[in-house]
Amino acid sequence: MDVIFYFVISLLVVTVASYFIFWLKNDWNRKDIEKEILALQTVGTTQQKDQEKEAVAYKQKINDFAYLLSNHKFTSNVLALVREQTMPNVWFKQFDLSQRENGVRLFGEADNMDDFSRQVLVFENNKYVKNINVLSSNMGASARVDFNLDLSLDQSVLDYPAVLSSITQTTTPSNQPVNQQGQGGTVESEKGILSFKVLLEPEVVGEINETNHTVLLKVPVGTDLKNLTPAITVSLGASVLPASNVLQDFTNPVTYSVTAQDGSIQDYEVTAVENVQQQAENKTGQSGSETLILIVLVSAIIIVIVVIVLALKRFK
Q1: How are beta strands 214-219 and 145-153 bridged, if at all?
Q2: What mean pLDDT do residues 33-56 have?
């Protein structure tokens, strides 16, 4: 029992120590990720960042409109179905729609139980209604039957041929002038490099400096600078020389010329350097992981030795 007790205590100590060590490791990794995120935020020009924000905003609007259109279609089809399947002497005064559950709860009145039964039968025989539950039916104060119904609808209700009451067409008055765009376009004068990437593993994204018109490529240590193929994105309507996706020697800085539609030219000096700092960080991270593993192993060995010694002394 003493041996088991000491063994359990040692396992508990090892577990707590391991948890603390790996918690530290996780914290270090989280800080490294935050540094990488901050570094990524510095990549790209101001124009690229503005375009990215605009694209994200448009995506959100598209998602919102898609949600509204989906809800509108469900509501329109369900109301059209109920309207066309309502029997004479039956009135619906309240609707609770649930697109998530694909159902509708109806609150209404009927002249008598016979009319109410006919209405339930109509819904039961409809192909768009999967299931119907009568929640309540009783004689109201107005001598009519008050009832609550739950209709579980089939997914095909979204294809129900809902009839539009009217279609409004808008025309331009004949006495009102219409604006037309001419054949000619605006000549663009933009001549910037929007992105400069090298297709490596991992991909290397150039750091663009619009003030000095330079691009810095930090490639992994050991990369052959004589054989790099950059992928270049320039302003709308502009061209670049040397061209994109063409093998290039970056042993020395290379000048890329961007020509706008109006013929103006902007030169960018592209420099490729080995990312020694990244290699050092990788080595540091790797050595840190190895150190943690070594500490855990040594701690476990020490605790096991202590347990064995205590157990031997106990038996003596």
Answers
A1: unpaired
A2: 76
Residue 224, token pair as written in the block: 């052959």
User: How far apart are alpha carbons 293 and 313 in whole angstroms?
Assistant: 31
Cα dist from 282 to 43, 81, 221, 290, whole Å? 21, 64, 12, 12
CB 192 within 8 A of CB 235: yes
Q: What's the pLDDT tens digit per position in 154-184? A: 878 777 765 443 333 333 344 443 343 433 4
Q: Which residues contact 114 (CB under 8 A, 6 or more apart)?
A: none
Element (H, E) at 269: strand 265-274
Share of the chain above pLDDT 90, in %: 7
Q: What is the pLDDT of residue 216?
A: 92
Q: Please spell the DSSP secondary structure of 115-165, one letter per residue.
A: HHHHHHHHHHT-TTEEEEEEEEEEE-TTSSEEEEEEEEE-GGGGG--PPPS
Q: Which amino acid is at 86?
A: T
The DSSP-derived string for 211-242 is TTTEEEEEEPTT--TTSB-EEEEESTT-EEES
- Residue 307: which H helix or E strand, with range? helix 276-315
96-126 tens-digit pLDDT: 887 677 788 888 888 888 888 888 888 888 8
Contacts for 258 with CB less than 8 Å, ≥ 6 apart:
191, 192, 193, 234, 235, 238, 239, 240, 265, 266, 267, 268
Greatest Cα-to-Cα distance within the chain, rounded to the nearest angstrom:
115
Q: 241, 232, 250, 200: which is closest to 45 by C-alpha?
A: 232
pTM of full prediction above 0.85? no
Q: Provide DSSP, 23-86.
A: HHHHHHHHHHHHHHHHHHHTSS-HHHHHHHHHHHHHHHHHHHHHHHHHHHHHHHHHHHHHHHHP
Sheet bearing 230-234, strands edge to edge = 204-205, 193-198, 230-234
Give, to the nearest 10 degrees, the angle between helix 2-41 and helix 276-315: 170
**Whole-angstrom distance, CA of residue 232 vs CA of residue 215:** 11
